[in-house]
Design goal:
Ca(2+) 1 binds at residues 75, 78, 80, 82, 84, 96. Belongs to the peroxidase family. Classical plant (class III) peroxidase subfamily. Belongs to the peroxidase family. Ascorbate peroxidase subfamily. Its cofactor is heme b; Ca(2+). This protein has two domains: 3-170 and 316-338, Peroxidase, domain 1; 177-309, Peroxidase, domain 2. The protein has 15 helices and two strands. The chain has helices spanning 2-22, 46-58, 64-76, 109-122, 129-143, 163-169, 177-186, 191-198, 212-216, 230-239, 263-269, 276-283, 290-299, 301-316, 341-344; strands at 205-207, 249-251. Bound molecules: protoporphyrin IX containing FE and 2-acetamido-2-deoxy-beta-D-glucopyranose (7 copies).
Amino acid sequence: MSSSSSSSSSSSCTLLIGLLFVVLLGGSLSHGQLSPTFYDSTCPKASNIVCGIIAEALKTDARIGGSLIRLHFHDCFVNGCDGSILLNNSATIESEKEALPNIISVRGFGVVDDIKTALETACPATVSCADILAIAAEESVSLAGGPSWNVSLGRRDSTTANRTAADTFLPGPTASLYTLKEMFSTMGLDTTDLVALSGAHTFGRAQCSTFIDRLYDFNSSGNPDPTLNTTYLSTLQGICPQDGDRTVVTNLDLTTPDVFDNKYFSNLQVLEGLLQSDQELFSTADENDAVAIVNNFTADQTAFFASFVVSMIKMGNISPLTGTAGEIRLNCGKVNDNSTESDGLLYSSM
Ligand code: HEM
Ligand SMILES: *[C@@H]1O[C@H](CO)[C@@H](O)[C@H](O)[C@H]1NC(C)=O
Ligand SMILES: *[C@@H]1O[C@H](CO)[C@@H](O)[C@H](O)[C@H]1NC(C)=O
Ligand SMILES: *[C@@H]1O[C@H](CO)[C@@H](O)[C@H](O)[C@H]1NC(C)=O
Ligand SMILES: *[C@@H]1O[C@H](CO)[C@@H](O)[C@H](O)[C@H]1NC(C)=O
Ligand SMILES: *[C@@H]1O[C@H](CO)[C@@H](O)[C@H](O)[C@H]1NC(C)=O
Ligand SMILES: *[C@@H]1O[C@H](CO)[C@@H](O)[C@H](O)[C@H]1NC(C)=O
Ligand SMILES: *[C@@H]1O[C@H](CO)[C@@H](O)[C@H](O)[C@H]1NC(C)=O
């Protein structure tokens, strides 16, 4: 099974080469605006290179696509899509990786570094780390059977990180629908965006620590979450014993764990959402305008895919650095040295 999925993976990458040639329109770019054709003349194979490395990584790490799209989300919600989540601790950087929503949880940095290395060989000092995350998110979805789309590009990389903002703006797994809506609204995202983007939980994993309270002590009640399907409750209690290892992971989508499809939404209808923040979309009684959207996406995968693409592009547009702002980092884990900074500005006149 893994060999058949990897062969379809590499054909998806090849397909995109063809697409990229078709897309060579050479549109004029204005500062402050992203464009799908941004690298068409400076790095036409960028998407293909990203895709190839993810397809290779998937052979040994089935959840890497989920990990990569999550990095893009956690990048964009913290002062915009500027690659800040990738910066390690240093004299000037207090890494966002150590913020509560990220620590012992975000992953995929090795694959991002592999992508960056390949891109620096193919087109030096050209493709930003922020754009790598945006492209990787799209390729990950499409390799898992989800939609493809033309990714808006031209983001530049931050020279700063903000751990406090990472602790403030990223939603937690026990968030209520009300809180989720508030937090997405702060980013300019509405309820349809919230529901569509939550659909990314159609693949990837979560640790016991993120849902264990639902199994034994929901909302400090001493009992399980009453909205959790009792069959699924027993399964999860087996995976996550009360005093067991809370870093054990399980599938966010119990039905089709590694496929990007609409099963996440049908799971919610039978009370089989893994996180409280998932089930809230369907099960909160009061003024729940999300439930109609969940029902629509369950009945209509095409509608889910179309909404997901629109919402991903919206999320990818959150406060990017463009023009000559920021830099093109040469190593995604650290800010450029002063001596190499001019390389990062090489193509800024575009
Ligand atoms: C709506 C609010 C959201 C909350 C509260 C939330 C929370 C979480 C949590 C707690 C995990 C498990 C982390 C761990 O145990 O290490 C997780 C995983 C994941 N999240 Fe979300 N998330 C949200 C929205 C999103 C969005 C918008 C996306 C992408 C568009 C996304 C994509 C993912 C993916 C793919 C995983 C699995 C990652 C992996 O396997 O490495 N999530 N999320
Ligand atoms: C990407 O853009 C090109 C050119 O505008 C278009 O022909 C193609 O259909 C688009 N692809 C997708 C998946 O939207
Ligand atoms: C970090 O983000 C917080 C929350 O948005 C903000 O109050 C603070 O000014 C930011 N710090 C820096 C150095 O940008
Ligand atoms: C959690 O408990 C508090 C106080 O007991 C209650 O007001 C609140 O509605 C409960 N929340 C949920 C999601 O059950
Ligand atoms: C619990 O899940 C099973 C399938 O996994 C489903 O048949 C059943 O209807 C669900 N129960 C509720 C209350 O939704
Ligand atoms: C889902 O919503 C879309 C957009 O509103 C609509 O075009 C489509 O017909 C709906 N699908 C179903 C099955 O209700
Ligand atoms: C940054 O940290 C990651 C691990 O989180 C490591 O793989 C990478 O090599 C580091 N990069 C730099 C430039 O130190
Ligand atoms: C290099 O950067 C540091 C701190 O950002 C600054 O203090 C120093 O003056 C810079 N050196 C050069 C040669 O630009």
